[in-house]
Predict the 3D structure of the following.
Amino acid sequence: MNNFVKRTLSGVGFVAVMLAALLLNKYIFGTVMTISLIVMMKEFLKMTCGKNYWFSQILSILAGTTLFVLVFLYKGFNFPGRLVILAFIPIFILMINSLYVKDKTRFDKFSNLYTAVLYIAVPWSLLNFAVFNGEGTFSGILLLSFFIIIWGSDVGAYIFGITLGQKYGKKLFPSISPKKSWIGFWGGMAMSVALAIGLHYLGLMPFKLLHCIAIAVLLDVTGVYGDLIESQWKRHYEVKDSGNIIPGHGGLLDRFDSALIAIPIGIIYLVLWNVLFV
């Protein structure tokens, strides 16, 4: 019961912070998302690099944070877009720093410093394209809708997987995540589509219904891949959770693993169809 209460309270707190970031103003959004990025990169680097190359880990986090902040300023404050290229400077410093690392016995881990930027910081920076329009006006409704679909997919997959998938369904990807089943996958898909239709009729996703359904399918499929990708990292490094910042739920990377792949794909879809004006 104590664990249930702890999970419930921490879950409510997490949702409250996310709602504040997405529904209040761009300053809270920028602050919460920057802190979240730093925490996720720290969790990933702790998992993959441990205590090795601590100074280089700081440089990696600085590079990722710089990228997010510059894109945030570009989209929300009319910061010159050409100056986003300044985000490469910390990455170049990170590369040069590798030459001066004395202990290269675990130099294979150094590649994870670049992976953290590509895997976490780059897709996280794209969130800015979902909350700012071409004039820099802030609205987190679309991004909130994406999160609702992604997390709803997780709930649907869990319910169908735990009730039917463990007994009757074939495993989805047993070598990485033994508990995931095809029945759970289709349950998550059904939940995603149902939520997208509901959000469309509530006016939260103001696109044609077919676009909303297509987005739901894309978010569900790529969200599953995002979850599997993080599971593969955790399985390789033999850790259960990426962190413990959310009591009973694990780390932030555990909570956003699906979103890191799914949300950029959703944004790309809307941009390619000329529905989202960025």
Notes: The mean pLDDT is 88. The first helix runs from residue 2 to 23.
